[in-house]
Design a protein that fits this description.
heterodimer, A: 176 residues, mainly alpha, 2 domains, 9 helices, 0% strand, B: 191 residues, globular
């Protein structure tokens, strides 16, 4: 079942490209020239995104390196001690919305130190699978069209992230 | 974003001073800048590839056919997208790429969707509700199988690496629905 879906997901992009170029050819599109014209837009888009990424990345790296991250994590750990979750889960809950590479590194570390079948591993695995690097998504998508006024998007995303993590922990407690 | 950025940065600097992590903090800023360059270069490649592919979709008219096909589904969530607008195709392709865990396709297609949604934006620079819905869908990580997580678990000899699939699926569905409910209730309250 898993292998089947894995194979399908490997197949999907090549098939999609094949279909697109032949559909274009049948519609008398010069697909090579068309592709080049489209690809030309790439650098402009990235130029728009870059300053947003930079602005987000330096503050996130600084937050981790300054020791503020550890303090916030310990604060949350105390605050939610009644929920009886391992401290690794609290770390993951804070790092996941901020940084994709840091959360992957942290997850690998948790698997290594607490074992591949520990409660901490299971909870963080579900968080890894069901949450997204919110600030990266925001920087890229808002940057790509130069949005300055985000209205209530950020509070919505942060509330949703928090509830998502509560749900992930609850699901693991319930199923395992 | 302004408030989040201001608070995170100030708190970090105050902490760096009081915990003596000043050197590490300053270094981390330049590391952050470096990884922004690296990520941008990576994005430059994949975004250009997908802009090439989507241009063929546009020139051949396929983008309108996909939009027409998925309009009934997409317009339930995105009420203010007219007719067979190209943004419907971009949103559809992004959602499909997300479902199959194709991150390298999902992000560029998402950027495409944002650009298409921006063509409907009457007040440039201010986000529309459709854009918010789209971003919330993307931050909720709708993925059928978390391949990378399973891969890491398997490489450390977990008893049942694929056992994570069901809880992830349940958590994803609940949190994606909750995220949308929160978004829609924010709109109601703040109208």
């Amino acid at each position: 079942m898993i292998e089947g879906i894995n194979y399908l997901s490997l197949l999907i992009i090549p098939l999609f490209i094949l279909f697109t170029i032949w559909y274009g050819t049948f519609k008398k599109v010069r697909v090579y020239d068309s592709f080049v014209a489209g690809a030309k837009e790439g650098p402009g888009i990235i130029l728009n995104i870059f300053p947003y990424l930079l602005t987000i990345f330096i503050v996130i790296k600084g937050f981790q390196a300054s020791g503020a991250f550890d303090a916030v994590r310990n604060g949350f750990y105390q605050l939610f001690s009644f929920a009886e979750v391992p401290i690794e889960v609290v770390s993951m809950a804070i790092i996941k919305p901020l940084s994709g590479s840091a959360s992957t590194a942290l997850f690998t570390d948790i698997v290594k130190t607490t074992g591949p079948d520990s409660v901490a591993t299971k909870m963080t695995a579900v968080i890894m699978g069901s949450a997204e690097t919110t600030f990266y998504v925001l920087a890229v998508y808002l940057g790509s069209v130069g949005i300055k006024k985000t209205r209530y998007l950020v509070p919505v995303c942060l509330t949703a992230d928090f509830i998502g993590i509560v749900v992930a922990v609850a699901v693991v407690k319930w199923l395992l | 974003m302004n408030a989040v950025w201001l608070i995170l940065f100030s708190v970090s600097i105050v902490f760096a001073i009081f915990t003596g992590n000043l050197d590490a903090f300053t270094k981390s800023i330049f590391e952050g800048a470096k990884s922004a360059v690296e990520v941008s270069l990576f994005l430059l490649g994949i975004v250009s590839v997908w802009m090439g592919i989507t241009r063929i979709l546009e020139d051949s008219g396929l983008i309108y056919r996909i939009a027409h096909l998925f309009r009934p589904v997409i317009s339930r969530l995105f009420r203010n997208i007219p007719g067979d607008h190209p943004s419907i195709s971009a949103i559809t392709l992004n959602v499909l790429a997300n479902l199959f865990g194709l991150g390298n396709a999902a992000t560029p297609l998402g950027i495409k969707a944002m650009q298409e949604l921006d063509t409907l934006n009457e007040e440039k620079g201010t986000i529309t509700f459709e854009m918010m819905t789209f971003i919330v869908l993307n931050t909720a990580s709708i993925q059928l199988i978390p391949f990378s997580v399973i891969g890491i678990l398997a490489s450390y000899n977990a008893v049942n690496p694929a056992g994570v699939v069901l809880p992830v699926l349940i958590a994803t569905v609940i949190s994606a629905l909750t995220a949308l409910v929160i978004l829609f209730s924010f709109r109601k309250v703040l109208k």
